[in-house]
Amino acid sequence: MRHNFGAGPCILPQEVFKQASRAILDFKDGLSILEISHRSPEFEGVMAEANKLVKELLNVPSGYSVLFLQGGASLQFAMVPMNLLPEGKTAAYLETGVWANKAIKEVKFFGKAEVVASSKEANFSFIPKDFAIPADAAYFHYTSNNTIYGTELFEVPKTTVPVVCDMSSDIMSRVIDVSQFDLIYAGAQKNIGPAGLTIVIVKDEILGQSGRAIPSMLDYASYKDNDSMYNTPPVFSIYTAMLNLNWLKSKGGVAEIEKENKAKADALYKEIDRNPLFKGTCAVEDRSRMNICFVMENPELEKPFAKFADDNGFEGLKGHRSVGGFRASMYNALPITSVHALIDLMQEFEEKQN
Ligand code: PMP
């Protein structure tokens, strides 16, 4: 058995893989999900159910729309300022990693980004705390979970301006209060489903305010007004996301999975802090529950530990090149048994050194 700690695309529940593969062969009357029209009543049903599940699982209040797009979270880096930043205005950004940085870079095509705080000097190993968000900013943007560095913001920063959040790597992992946000976006390929789909949750009243002429495919309104079917949507990604969200619902929803995610993260951090061979790379109070980054006290042991992990069936543990060491990504579908297996592996490796 392989334990998949990959950062994304990542593990999804085995039963979702099985259901999705059955639908490739026979979704309806012998027809594959891959060959039916997106305008068929069957697929319209899938779309409606996926939309309803996002709303249900995140308790999305009325006055918000759930949209299904393509282009990944990276396209949102540009779509957000294109749709929400009026000419001549400034948007406020919190720089907590590479993804935030890429989002900041896209703003220059539309206006100005003011970086309200950054932890770049410390290789993004913590979340800046004391920063002021200008009251006249068009919006404030932050990344709730920094996939590469393993830091997470559990509290929404206080501000009077609209809040935009890149939630790609922690959406559906813990309970959030959607009413604290004006726009949430997430690439699907962690806790939602396969790659190829992006989810946007937007407060309807903030749309149509930028005064810009926006091409149809880049205008949130096109998705909102056409039930995310302005053009052909990523049918199979949406279908599989629907299966995965149904799995989450059957497990008791986000509040239940949050308990599991907390137990998984607590167990691994406990071992990292106890085992003299390993150390965490981030400020303890900012540690992510989804991506757990650690290095070895003796860097010379990293290669042997990586090999030991590989030989024992562990996948995707290599840290991102900008942090080095190891990263255990522990999304919703990763069973706690895999976390216990990793802890056992770390302990066995420790014994081998003595
Ligand atoms: N934001 C975050 C937090 C991410 O983790 C990622 C990808 N891992 C991205 C943005 C970019 O997403 P995509 O590849 O879907 O464009």
UniProtKB/TrEMBL annotation:
Q: What class of enzyme is it?
A: transferase
Tell me the cofactor note: Binds 1 pyridoxal phosphate per subunit.
**Classification via SUPFAM superfamilies:** PLP-dependent transferases
**Ranges of residues in domain Aminotransferase class V:** 4-340
Gene Ontology biological process terms in this record: L-serine biosynthetic process; pyridoxine biosynthetic process
Q: Which cofactor does it need?
A: pyridoxal 5'-phosphate
Enzymatic reactions: 4-(phosphooxy)-L-threonine + 2-oxoglutarate = (R)-3-hydroxy-2-oxo-4-phosphooxybutanoate + L-glutamate; O-phospho-L-serine + 2-oxoglutarate = 3-phosphooxypyruvate + L-glutamate
Record's InterPro entries?
Aminotrans_V_dom, Aminotrans_V_PyrdxlP_BS, Pser_aminoTfrase, PyrdxlP-dep_Trfase, PyrdxlP-dep_Trfase_major, PyrdxlP-dep_Trfase_small
Which of the residues bear the PTM N6-(pyridoxal phosphate)lysine? 190
Q: State the UniProt keywords alphabetically.
A: Amino-acid biosynthesis, Aminotransferase, Cytoplasm, Pyridoxal phosphate, Pyridoxine biosynthesis, Serine biosynthesis, Transferase
Q: Name a single GO cellular component.
A: cytoplasm
* EC number annotated for this UniProt entry: 2.6.1.52
Q: Which residues bind L-glutamate?
A: 39
Pfam families (UniProt xref):
Aminotran_5
Pathway-wise, it operates in: Amino-acid biosynthesis; L-serine biosynthesis; L-serine from 3-phospho-D-glycerate: step 2/3; Cofactor biosynthesis; pyridoxine 5'-phosphate biosynthesis; pyridoxine 5'-phosphate from D-erythrose 4-phosphate: step 3/5
Top-level taxon: Bacteria
Locate the residues binding pyridoxal 5'-phosphate: 73-74, 99, 147, 166, 189, 231-232
The record's GO molecular-function terms, alphabetically, read: O-phospho-L-serine:2-oxoglutarate aminotransferase activity; pyridoxal phosphate binding
Q: What job does the chain carry out?
A: Catalyzes the reversible conversion of 3-phosphohydroxypyruvate to phosphoserine and of 3-hydroxy-2-oxo-4-phosphonooxybutanoate to phosphohydroxythreonine.
Q: Which family does it belong to?
A: Belongs to the class-V pyridoxal-phosphate-dependent aminotransferase family. SerC subfamily.
Name listed for the protein in its UniProt record: Phosphoserine aminotransferase
Name the species this protein comes from. Pedobacter cryotolerans
